[in-house]
Amino acid sequence: MTQHSESNKVVVIGGGYAGTVAANRLRVRAGVDITLVNPRPTFVDRIRLHQFVAGTGDATLDYGTLLGAGIQLAVDSATRIDTATRTVRLASGRALDYDYVIYAVGSTGTTPSSVPGAAEFAVPIAEFEPARRLRGRLAELPPDAPVTVVGGGLTGIETAAELAEQGRTVTLVCGGTLAPSLSAPGRRSVAKWLSGHGVAVQEADVVTEVRPDAVVLADGTGADAVRPSALTVWTAGFGVPGLAAESGLRTDALGRLLTDETLTSVDDDRVVAAGDAAAPSGRPLRMSCYAAGPLGAQAADTVLSHLAGTEPAGVGLAFSGSCVSLGRRAAVRQLARKDDTVVNVYIGGRAGARIKEMSCKVAVWKIRREARKPGSLIWPKGAPRPEQQTPAAQEITSP
Ligand SMILES: Cc1cc2nc3c(=O)[nH]c(=O)nc-3n(C[C@H](O)[C@H](O)[C@H](O)COP(=O)(O)OP(=O)(O)OC[C@H]3O[C@@H](n4cnc5c(N)ncnc54)[C@H](O)[C@@H]3O)c2cc1C
What we know:
Helices cover 26% and strands 27% of the residues. It is of the alpha/beta class. Strands 5-2-1-9-22 form a five-stranded parallel beta sheet, with helices on one face. A five-stranded parallel beta sheet has the order 11-18-12-13-14.
């Protein structure tokens, strides 16, 4: 337990699901000076980016009703956390003093350098700016132009389905099993919907090259096939921003800030992490909006404990499954145990779609509620996480 009750300036880096909840929750304690740093003046509702690309929904919201009174929004990017001087340096040249930082920079879409042409000609969907580029590119294409979606995970499936329902000609290249995180029955339901809506699913194929108007596929037999692709959307693999490592803080192999179970950095107890960019004990929770809100709340609680000189609680979150949309009228709501292992039960069709839409709305509703009523977010805690491993046992990158 560390007591730093003399001052209370908190800089929250990243205004996504975790950062906005954290900033709002800090208002539980009067007199905390809260600045939220985010590169855009609007909140990006990332779980709707596939809808934004396909033209079936918006993915930005005004911060107005999402942030509680008194929170200062700095539209800027953090370029370094200077732990020696306790300042966050910003791209604009400004520097913000802090007593605590909440590190909530989220995750990013990546294109692999190992695949020739991927960085130049494929566009990731996981962030707002590339998603806007995808939307613009689609608008310029004839409706029947071939579109390739790379990645058979939930983001790739949602993207392929959304585009197919809008009449696009879509190939989904999985590079392995389609929807590996779902149960076998859930997977079959997804496969049936995709084939029924004309999506060509190349399950085992791997994209080995991206060209301006084509992709090269390998099926493992040594026979490459060149397929026309007017637009290639890359959804395989998420990365994280490099800010923690660039600031000299230890991270896991992907670049998530390495913390203890209270989300406090193993290197500096004035830096606390939340959301996709956090790796508690080197064993991060599944990257998800579902986990980001509770982790944001927990990060705020940890900072408030440090300020009050009390013992912060350890991470606890019970999962209940995941939900993958299949256009606007269907979804697969996969059920899971609290530890996130799936069971062979899912809710499909229109009922699944209603659950999915409701959970998207609830994600934003929870942020607004926390803005109005700090401390209101509660979440299912589940069993304590298994015995904490020492960071040395993990694959960790040193700065
Ligand atoms: C198409 C799509 C669909 C998805 N669907 C689901 C779903 O159905 N369910 C689910 O649970 N999850 C879903 N996810 C995953 C979910 O969106 C992420 O796990 C979630 O956004 C993580 O929240 P976060 O607050 O950690 O980060 P983010 O929401 O990514 O927010 C991070 C913020 O930090 C900002 N930032 C980054 N670097 C800096 C910096 N240096 N300085 C200042 N600010 C910075 C970013 O710009 C961003 O605004 C989906 C993702 C995508 C792309």
